[in-house]
Amino acid sequence: MTRYPEEINITINKEIEILRNNQNNNTDMMIVAFVNNELVGNVVIRCERNHIKLKHRAVLGISVKGKYWNKGIGNELLREIIEQARVIGYEQIELGVFSDNEKARKLYEKYGFEVWGNLKNAFKLKDGTYRDEILMGRSINSRIGSF
Q1: Can you identify the CATH homologous superfamily of domain 5-139?
Q2: CA–CA distances in Å: residue 79 to residues 38, 112, 118
Q3: CA-to-CA distance for 79 and 26, rounded, in angstroms?
Q4: Domains of the chain: which residue ranges?
Q5: Sorting pLDDT into bands at 50, 70 and 90, what band is 147?
Q6: How many whole angstroms separate alpha carbon 90 and alpha carbon 82?
């Protein structure tokens, strides 16, 4: 979400390598959603850094294609990745969201995420405008919500 499509120049072989590494990794996980064989969304957690002082922290990224919004896909992806983060042994999950993305913030809050900070002018868009990044996080030591 931090890059424009034209900035992504990964080869198929590199993508296969990334997916294989993720598959054989015990700290990172990707879950994908398909509708009628179409990839419509994914969620990823990865270890912030595999250092003693940081390895309790997972960083989350999620994406759902616009035409599939409001169908519960984001809810299911978040619910499952939080549970898997708990199984892996993470103690907290962190994410960043554009400050003007109220819909996403409400979804994250539904799953127990709280605002932990704000990074001013974190993103500069093509049109020259800036967006702040809201930093959110949640503990996963206890269950939150209906899962």
Answers
A1: Gcn5-related N-acetyltransferase (GNAT) (3.40.630.30)
A2: 21, 11, 25
A3: 19
A4: 5-139
A5: very low
A6: 9
